[in-house]
Specification:
heterodimer, A: alpha/beta, Rossmann fold, six-stranded parallel beta sheet, four-stranded mixed beta sheet, B: alpha/beta, 2 domains, 10 strands, 50% helix, elongated
């Protein structure tokens, strides 16, 4: 069935807007935002990552995310420990750079690599996967937020559909504020299909303002925070 | 609905409330003790949450000025930004549709559903979809549009409208929701435990996300330079609706566009703190186009419907354009003494509270909505908390004027302009003005009024419903002053 042709509506709407002469305003000055408390670290030198670890952890816990500390050489074991602690045995993983390191830590679990289109295993992902494991692009200390850039190697539903989301975050990717993280990573002009910020597990306060976790997305979020700031031990 | 629901077809039949009956609705709402207590506690909660983030008034003011300047700048460039947005979206493979009216928007939804053979859609929270009454229009054609935001789902099951734009089921208690679930959902015993109720909602809706062919969503911000749609939410249902079904249809108003992605961030900072007192929401979901080659999930088709529905009328009038700065946080309703007492349903419009009273006249015309701008004491709390600096009390005053008077020179008439004009009232004011310009006649009229004072009717319309009747004083201010002057000057004359 063909869709309605909405070009006439388009001309009518744009015509109504165009036939009024409007004074163009100067481009908004964002300096008070970037220089203020909500844009910390987005101008000047980057805030030292080591000083952001503790605030990140506090803020993330505030959203009821679990934060586990790990080293460069043992984070896969920390992921495994998080899975075991929650009895998660059916695990979905991506196909990205994390995987070769992670795989050896997951023996005895049913590991499903997300390498087929979702449509081919939708029911399985929805009904028979306990946890999804992803990396993260960056972390935001002031708000305890993870920045994810899902793609072919880590699809969007990997951090959405399984009831447990385990995210691996490198301490070297911590930024003070959201503004600082996005300025540094500059997604414009080539935005990915999906750019995602995650702060804690899914939640709702729709019934009498009572906070309940696990609305439709993950019920739990575990962040494995990897200390990649100190020199690797030889 | 589905196997999980006891009712076949759509949820409980919708009980429409009409803004024409606003005054009667308000009286009814004020008499409902349960409703008032629900709203009072919710408003106190939301006010305290917001205040906890804006303790530093100077920091809030600075951020608000940035937000306001972004919105004003974007609106000043609206036609250019819409064309730029459309071009970027099309480059990214998004299909863009335009609708002047709710009927046109619904026709697009219907055609999309038919094309994909869909009898069911899952929907993330979208006030614009409420505005076009999407659920009901689709139901008329046998297509079910299922709400998936927990609050919206509850409201849909009950056959009601949302009573708040951020917390749709704010008017309901957990006991009422427990009873509703027990009635409407199969094999669901009564419970009023909130975690259990949310778990029930999750279970029922999860299979709907999995199986639906079409996901519908609103949009919080659109970025013209990148062709990005930004959705802000806590539950994850918005991500489900925009990621799992093979077709994603977004609908929003034409005013939601900004130029650059970095313009979104200050607005996001203002939105979440003003709305629910959160520094961030659980999810900030920025979508740029459908699934690309090599990607394994996400919709293969993305559509955007840009709805006007009266927005261009507000835009074309410099006085009313600030109405469109709104980012739909709901802070104005959370702080409104009128909204807090009557709740959102009494307004009978999609958008209740102060923002609803200034938006709805453009959406529906001033005729059915003429009473809404009068539902304010002009206390100014709404303007004080508005994160984008909308002068709501001024706009309420202008709409009151527009409802009673013809358009001023240089202004095109609004839909329903002067619809509340009353020749008796107009005549009375004209007479009053004339009397004040003619002192002799004024004195005569007053003198006559004093003589007839005893005949003052004890019942004077709405005035005497809550007040004593108005009657002329036996002795007016002028007479008293004159008498006082005589007394003061009298001893001097004795001398």
């Amino acid at each position: 069935m063909s869709l309605p042709d909405t070009r006439a509506a388009r001309s009518a709407i744009l015509g109504a807007l165009r036939d009024r002469v409007t004074m163009v305003l100067p481009s908004p000055d964002l300096a008070p935002y970037h220089g203020g408390p909500f844009g910390r670290g987005s101008t000047g030198a980057r805030v030292d990552c080591a000083s952001l670890v503790a605030p990140f952890e506090t803020a993330a816990r505030g959203w009821r995310a679990e934060v586990l500390h790990a080293r460069r050489d043992d984070w896969p074991q920390a992921v495994r420990a998080a899975l075991d602690a929650r009895g998660a045995t059916r695990v979905a993983v991506g196909t990205g750079a994390l995987q070769p390191l992670l795989a050896p830590a997951l023996p005895g679990l049913q590991v499903r690599r997300f390498e087929q289109p979702l449509s081919q295993w939708k029911a399985e992902l929805f009904d028979a996967v306990d946890a999804g494991i992803t990396g993260t692009l960056a972390g935001v200390a002031d708000t305890g937020t993870l920045l994810l850039r899902p793609g072919a190697d880590e699809p969007r539903t990997l951090s959405l559909v399984p009831p447990l989301h385990v995210a691996v975050l490198m301490a070297s990717t911590l930024y003070a504020s959201l503004a600082a993280a996005l300025r540094a990573l500059a997604p414009e002009p080539d935005m990915p299909t999906n750019l995602l910020l995650v702060s804690g597990p899914s939640k709702t306060a729709d019934i009498q303002q009572t906070l309940a976790y696990g609305a439709h997305g993950p019920k739990e979020l575990v962040i494995v925070l990897v200390d990649d700031l100190s020199e690797p031990q030889s | 609905m589905t196997a999980a629901h006891t009712r076949a077809g759509a949820a409980a039949p919708m009980r429409f409330v009409d803004p024409r009956h606003f005054k009667a609705n308000s009286r009814e709402a004020v008499d409902d003790a349960q409703l008032r207590s629900s709203f009072r506690s919710a408003m106190d909660f939301l006010q305290a949450r917001r205040a906890s983030h804006f303790g530093d008034a100077a920091a809030f003011e600075a951020l608000r000025r940035v937000g306001e300047s972004i919105r004003r700048y974007s609106l000043a460039k609206l036609p250019e930004l819409l064309e730029q947005l459309e071009a970027r979206l099309v480059e990214r493979g998004v299909q863009v549709h335009w609708a002047q009216t709710p009927a046109q928007a619904n026709a697009i939804f219907l055609a999309l559903a038919r094309r994909h053979g869909a009898t069911r859609m899952v929907k993330g929270k979208s006030m614009v979809s409420e505005e076009i009454e999407l659920n009901h229009r689709m139901a008329e054609h046998g297509i079910e549009c299922l709400e998936t935001d927990m609050g919206e789902y509850i409201v849909q099951l009950a056959g009601e409208r949302p009573s708040h734009i951020i917390m749709p089921a704010i008017h309901k208690t957990r006991q009422q929701i427990g009873a509703l679930f027990a009635d409407e959902l199969r094999d669901t015993p009564y419970t009023d435990d909130v975690d259990t109720l949310i778990a029930i909602g999750r279970r029922v809706l999860r299979s709907e996300f999995r199986d639906a062919a079409i996901g519908v969503s609103g949009v919080n911000f659109m970025v013209a330079e990148t062709g990005t749609l930004v959705l802000v939410e806590n539950e994850g249902n918005g991500r489900m609706c925009t990621t799992v079904p093979d077709v994603h249809v977004a609908i929003t108003g034409i005013e939601k566009v900004v130029e650059r992605f970095e313009h979104v961030l200050p607005l996001f900072a203002l939105l979440t703190r003003s709305a629910t007192g959160q520094a961030v929401t659980t999810y900030f979901n920025a979508i740029t186009g459908p699934r690309r080659a090599g990607e394994l999930d996400g919709p293969s088709e993305v559509h955007l419907i840009l709805l006007d529905n009266g927005r261009s009328q507000a835009w074309r009038d410099d006085d009313f354009r600030p109405t469109l700065q709104c980012i739909r946080c709901g802070a104005c309703m959370n702080h409104c003494p009128v909204y807090a007492r009557i709740g959102g349903l009494a307004y009978g419009t999609t958008y209740p509270g102060p923002i609803g009273s200034i938006v709805s006249p453009h959406l529906l015309g001033l005729d059915p909505t003429r009473d809404l701008p009068t539902a304010s004491s002009l206390c100014g709390a709404c303007a004080e908390v508005c994160p984008v600096g909308i002068p709501i009390p001024d706009l309420l005053m202008q709409l009151r004027r527009a409802a009673k008077h013809d358009a001023a020179p240089g202004h095109a008439p609004l839909a329903g302009q002067a619809s509340a004009k009353d020749w008796r009232e107009a005549l009375a004011w004209r007479l009053w003005a004339w009397l004040n310009e003619h002192p002799a006649w004024y004195r005569l009229a007053v003198a006559l009024g004093r003589r007839l004072r005893a005949l003052t009717p004890p019942w004077q319309g709405g005035w005497t419903a809550h007040r004593k009747p108005l009657r002329l004083a036996a002795c007016g201010l002028r007479e008293r002053m004159r008498a006082a002057e005589r007394r003061e000057s009298a001893p001097a004359r004795v001398d």
